[in-house]
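Priority: medium. Attachment 1 of 2:
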């Protein structure tokens, strides 16, 4: 289940972060329409590039016992996301650089991993019954 959540949310987060990052590097800020269309344009590429790394990140993070705090879970998600994206970009012979390549994708993987960890942890927590709610209130 965790791998599916990461596969759904990670590429979307990475694509939108990459679009925002790209817009910030430009000489002039984009208009609202350009920003929206640019972000929408990036989403399919995010899934093409990030679906497998996001699912692998979710698979590894899903192994982590649930007893850890949310901060540890999200931090672990960010670290694994960065490592998986760095490994994928290294295997595809991406150049090492800040604006492109391994470092760039590792940073995006960390951000996407952290966001996916937040979503995953929230969904996992909301799916469980709290101890007070599991007891019958008609005693």
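Attachment 2 of 2:
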């Amino acid at each position: 289940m965790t791998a599916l959540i990461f596969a759904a949310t990670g590429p979307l987060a990475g694509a939108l972060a990459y679009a925002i990052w790209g817009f910030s590097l430009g000489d002039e800020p984009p208009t609202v329409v350009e920003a929206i269309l640019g972000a929408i344009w990036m989403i399919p590429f995010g899934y093409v590039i990030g679906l497998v790394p996001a699912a692998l990140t979710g698979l590894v993070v899903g192994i982590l016992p649930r007893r850890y705090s949310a901060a540890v879970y999200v931090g672990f998600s960010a670290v694994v996301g960065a490592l998986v994206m760095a490994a994928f970009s290294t295997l595809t012979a991406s150049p090492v650089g800040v604006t492109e390549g391994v470092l760039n994708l590792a940073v995006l993987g960390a951000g996407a991993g952290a966001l996916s960890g937040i979503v995953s942890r929230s969904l996992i927590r909301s799916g469980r019954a709290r101890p007070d709610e599991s007891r019958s209130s008609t005693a």
